[in-house]
Amino acid sequence: MAMLEVNNIYKSFGKVEVLKGIDFKLEEGKVISVIGSSGSGKTTLLRCITGLETADVGRITVDGHVTFDWENKVRLTKRQRRENQLATGLVFQSFNLFPQYTVLDNVLLAKKLILKEELRASRATIAEKKEWFAAVTEEAKEIIASVGLGDKLDSYPCQLSGGQQQRVAIARALILSPKVLCFDEPTSALDPEITGEVLKVIGNLAKQGRTMLIVTHEMGFAREVSDEVIFMDRGVIAEQGDPDEMFENPQTERLAHFLNAMLKA
């Protein structure tokens, strides 16, 4: 089953056409890595999928639910837009943690806000609220421990390394239980010696069967963790397929040139 379907997506900023008819499917429990040079449209594609940008043309569905449909002029309610955004978690290049909050509070913040709304709507009793918040807190602690930071619950972002902060950002995305977990160059802001710890966490998520879309410049990681690789060039998918085949036998000159340049970097 396709958990994510992207059909004929176009996106321009002014006169600059960034995406030019993007089509692909991401099956449930699979991983697709998106590679390509800077300016090829990778980040814009992620932002359109997660609702941070609105495409100009095309159709996007997540878990069978339409999140964008230009041709049929689908208009979503505010609640539907929020639900769609929650269905596609995004881990950014920069960690975007709140410096005034601890690791535990950073992970819990969005989840608690959502839970408060749900409890208010259901007219839950004070006892029920306490029970739910306690359960969510335990869930957050388990997720934080799963990314290797169980001993950092009360630490603040300034007390963490870049790799640790990115792992907190991953935990923050995981607690919202996204249908598709998206990563936008998750190691680009990290020193090479701590990049491995973040890639290990993402690799473990892949082994657990998480549905993931990963924009990355780590070619070895993309080849190892992905079920499929998409190579974007100047706003289009120039090549797509099996990782080993693409890396060993690129079918386009542009991909061959890109991979050669990455190996020399």
Characterization of the model:
It is a single chain. With 265 residues, the protein is of the alpha/beta class. 43% of the residues lie in helices and 25% in strands. It is built from 9 helices and 10 strands. The chain has helices spanning 42-50, 78-87, 103-122, 126-146, 162-174, 192-207, 219-225, 243-248, 253-264; strands at 2-13, 16-27, 31-35, 57-62, 65-69, 88-91, 180-184, 212-215, 228-233, 236-241. A 6-stranded mixed sheet has the order 6-7-8-3-9-10, with helices on both faces. A hairpin with a 2-residue loop joins β1 and β2. α3 (103-122) runs parallel beside α5 (162-174).
Largest beta sheet: strand ordering: 6-7-8-3-9-10
Q: How can the largest sheet be summarized? A: 6 strands, mixed
Indicate the proportion of strand residues.
15-25%
Distance between the termini: 38 Å
Give start-end ranges of low-pLDDT stretches.
none
The radius of gyration over CA amounts to: 19 Å
Please tell me what the overall shape is: globular
Structural class: alpha/beta
The helix tally amounts to 9
Total strand segments: 10
Order of helices and strands: EEEHEEHEHHHEHEHEEHH
What integer is the average pLDDT?
A: 93
Helix content estimate: 40-55%
